[in-house]
Amino acid sequence: MTIAILPGSYCGAAPVPASVWTSWNLDPVLLGVMLLMWLVVRRHPTGTAAMLVLSVAFVSPLCAISVGLFSARVVHHVLLVAVAAPLLAAAIPRRGGHVGVHFAISTFILWLWHLPAGYDLALSDMGVYWIMQVTLLASAVLFWRAVLSAGPSAQAMMWTLAGLIQMGMLGAILTFAPAPLYAAHAVAPLAWGFDPLTDQQLGGLIMWVPGMVPYAAMIGLQARRGWQMAERA
User: What predicted TM-score, i.e. pTM, was given to this entire model?
Assistant: First the structure.
């Protein structure tokens, strides 16, 4: 049993709880692209970890659930920009650009795709959907690559903190919005026991709290490395 959704949504129709574990996405084009990506990054330990995270986002039932539930879509986006992206960035053997520039670009793209008009369009058109996914992941990879290239510096920690703050701000806006914002999730949450506003609030909380954890972890790692360098000096 499936729930009717906007035509063109990737991962098919939103599943109901009883059918969720049969909702794996085995799109051969997606699997082929992910295999090519793995061949490129497999030599670095974080590269394989990144591909496992992307598999959870795009191949596991999470992909289908995120068609129906906004909260699942938030988990999907957090996995892309705050988990897979830094792992991929660590596997890329090149220096990044200016951290502030990439922070501005990645933040703009993340907020742009959470505006209701852009978000609903992405879930109704597969071409726009993939533009959303690619731009979110690519901009986040470039941001994290710039952070890692900057080393344990005050600049890197400042912009990582800025990333944490903007993620929390977006989550707070979604949590405290007085009404549902996204037409794409107007019906499907009901089958999961949520009304659309509760689903949106849960998504905001996920972005607000767990979504900030990777940024906090990076700040802690940078501070630890800085102290170790100071001790050696």
Answer: 0.91
